[in-house]
Amino acid sequence: MTTETPSTTIAVTRHFDALSERVFDAWLTPEIAGKWLFATPGGKMQSVEIDPRVGGGFTIIERRGDEDVAHYGRYLELDRPRRLTFDFGDEIVEKATIVTVEIALVDAGCELTLTHEGVYLEFADRTKDGWTTLLAGLAQVLSETA
Questions:
Q1: Model-level pTM?
Q2: pLDDT beyond 90 at 89
């Protein structure tokens, strides 16, 4: 008998004072993504490989202390500048989860809603906090490169 680890879906929304195209492209441009995507304070980005097409994928490796932490995924949907979906994995989870990023135009910039499906319940708060922090990093990077 197999038992499934209980999982949930988390969502994070953030406003950006930037065009939706800039926000979308920041997910797929290695030079920009390497500054914020899966970056942590004190970590040192080792490599950022992105193949930005449906069926393509990404591998992002950051050195944290004495170890390299890898995040990887495969793009399932790319609809510039409105939506991207990818499966997502790292060394912690046993199976890939699904992340969807939806970007909507608003009066002053755009609003991004990130939905992460299949998050293990034990990691739900940590995952939501992590995405919230990463999106704040994206906002900072976009403001620096405006």
A1: 0.92
A2: no
